[in-house]
Amino acid sequence: MIRVKLVAPFELDGIDSDGCVDLPDGARVKDLLRRVRGFPPYARFFPVAVNGDQVKRSHCLKDGDTVVFIMPVSGG
Amino acid sequence: MNGYTGKILLVDLTSREWHEETVPDEVYQRCLSGLGLAAHILNERIPSGDDPLGPQNILGFVTGILSGTGAMFSGRWLAVGKSPLTGGWGDASCGGNLAGGIKHSGYDGVFITGASQTPVYIYADGRTVEIHDASELWGKDAVETEAELVQRHGKKACVGCIGPAGEALALISGIVNDHGRLAARSGLGAVMGSKKLKALVMAGSHPVKTAKPVEFHEIIKKVAATVPKKAINLPGWALPLLVKLVNLATGDKKVSRLDGMMAVGLMRKWGTAMNNELSVMSGDGPVRNWRGTPRLYHTSHVNPDQLNRAKKKTYSCYSCPLGCGAIVELKGEYLETHRPEYETTAALGALLLLQDLDTIEYINEYLNRAGIDSISAGSVIAFAMDCFEHGLLTEQDTGGLQLRWGDPQAIKRLVQMIVNREGVGDMLADGVKRASQQIGRGSEQYAFHAGGQELPMHDPRKDPGYGVHYAGDPTPGRHTMGCYAMYDLLRLWTRVSWAPEPPHSYPDADRYQASTENGVKMAACGMVKMVLDGAGLCLFGAQMGVDRLAVFELLNAATGWSLRPDEYMEIGRHVESLRQVFNIRQGLEPASVQMNPRVHGASPASAGPLKGKHYALYAMRREYWKAMKWDPQTGHPLEVEEVVLK
């Protein structure tokens, strides 16, 4: 079992108060999208970064990874 | 040394004397360094009712506790003084290299009083302080001035200087560092010009030590691990699409809590230009002098990829791992300029309906060299265009210039007239408030400012938290003080016991309520901004979250203190109160700061993304002041006032 941190602009079920989710060993980004409830269908179009590096959906996750769904924020 | 040096340099330009002063530890424990140190010094030493352009005003250049320590995002320096625009507290923050220059010269700040009869510049390196003649530099633009001074004093020389606008006492002028970057707001370029001070040159190389160096570097390593090392590979046109998709998921009536980590890689690629299109489309960016809708402005010309089309290189401020700045090539009079920031592109673009990016980039460079605040320049031109359209200014007033929306040649010419104080430009160089007072005849309905400071390019009808700070903070009209989106990004609830955690999505309508919780959130933004400015940290770094940037942990390791985040927030509150007391002592009543009713939706927009949006600005300001422990009706922080006025 691995534990990854998830940062996303969606309201998701099944992540704990630290924003983390448990996944089986060898899970990929696309598995995350399937297992966590609340991802809208078009979440698959969002670019994803793991530990700051942009990755594909087939990227294999490791324990302690931070998965971020990319989204611009306002500021100036 | 505990991060701070405990020493400031004071220079009197009237007598041409200088001395160093030791600042007691208690001052740092009560106010931190940077803005807090400045609030302490200026409250003590600027007489009540003093003329901001008179010799008794003090112009300060200050750094934070973390400046020079190697902490990431610690490259900010601030100019401070009494603002000639508002008549109250003035400050302006800038990146570049001057923070390191000041700190490595052995000072937490340099404070200048008096006025010279002839142009001078100050050179200091920690061993000597010299006041030099600057007659040959007077009249040169800021980029030329800096280049000349670096040639004279060597590569270590870090320069803060004014351009021709500051020399001409334009009240919308700022102070320039690092080849055209501005501490733009509050009109402090005019204060520097009034002292006939062309430049401050700091060239020291003292190391800056921390109280717990091993712990300090361990924290820095952890922070470094959280900062993405690469830009995100995404086309610029996709950004608005992503936002639309999220809006589809949450619905128009809900807001998703934002997290700064989502955008760090985007900042690395585009800097603040990331927001150019999005802001206009969402209603955040004002269009046609705050009176238009996004339909009037085609944003494809200012798409972030367009801003990068002639990018030569990216650059970072001193001690920054992100590098959100870039240099772009120009054709014509100038060879290059800084990639225009969002505020600049919005103020010269959508606000004026100017579509031509080449012209925006040219004016960006022209204003940087002249030393003028691009937000204020765009605002005052938009005001003039509205006045021209409504017959309040005529061709006779403008010297034959037809001020038509979006006309690149007319806008270029008017910018030159402002910098040269030529014709109608003379009036406009002092900002929209004074221009509307001079024109009269109802022109104030086209003037968008808070207490004399032109409004930034974020419409509070989209995020009313901006409005609360524009009208309620001791520096009116300042977008970096806080809003609800910023509260989400700062993640204060991870460290501060009383800071409420927003849900992952919440009703948009909640942001428009004059509630106790909203007041607390805005007060929290103000307090932590004072901590960041006391530390010398960049707001963009902090928008990754105070926990991930380890703001409070770094401060403790640098100083050797063991303060809890709640205690740092109380220091932030104290500094906010000191700045508010400064205003009151100078005769600027907080409750007298009003804004154009359109900005709070008194006559709501009938179309566009802000259709029907309004909020009870002054009721929300009262909640903010109450949360600051200030009198909700008057904005007076009575407790601090008693202490300071004793």
Keywords:
heterodimer, A: 76 residues, mainly beta, 5-stranded mixed sheet, 26% strand, globular, B: 646 residues, alpha+beta, 6-stranded mixed sheet, 26 helices, 13% strand
Q: How would the blueprint of this fold be written?
A:
The complex is a heterodimer of chains A (76) and B (646).
Chain A: E1 2-7, E2 20-23, H1 29-35, E3 48-50, E4 53-55, E5 66-69
Parallel strand pairs in A: 1-5
Antiparallel strand pairs in A: 1-2, 3-4, 3-5
Chain B: E1 7-12, E2 17-22, H1 25-31, H2 34-45, E3 59-62, E4 77-82, E5 89-94, H3 98-103, E6 109-113, E7 120-124, E8 129-133, H4 142-153, E9 158-161, H5 164-167, E10 175-177, E11 181-183, H6 188-194, E12 197-202, H7 213-226, H8 238-250, E13 254-256, H9 264-270, H10 276-282, H11 304-307, E14 311-315, E15 325-329, E16 336-338, H12 342-348, H13 357-370, H14 374-389, H15 395-398, H16 408-419, H17 424-428, H18 432-439, E17 449-450, E18 453-454, H19 464-472, H20 484-490, E19 505-507, H21 516-535, H22 539-542, H23 551-559, H24 565-585, H25 617-627, H26 638-645
Short description, anyone?
Chain A has one helix and five strands, in the order ββαβββ. Chain A is mainly beta.
**Major sheet strand order of chain A:** 2-1-5-3-4
Shape of chain B: globular
The number of distinct β-strands of chain B equals 19
Number of strands of chain A: 5
- Give a short account of the largest sheet of chain B: 6 strands, mixed
The DSSP helix count of chain A reads 1
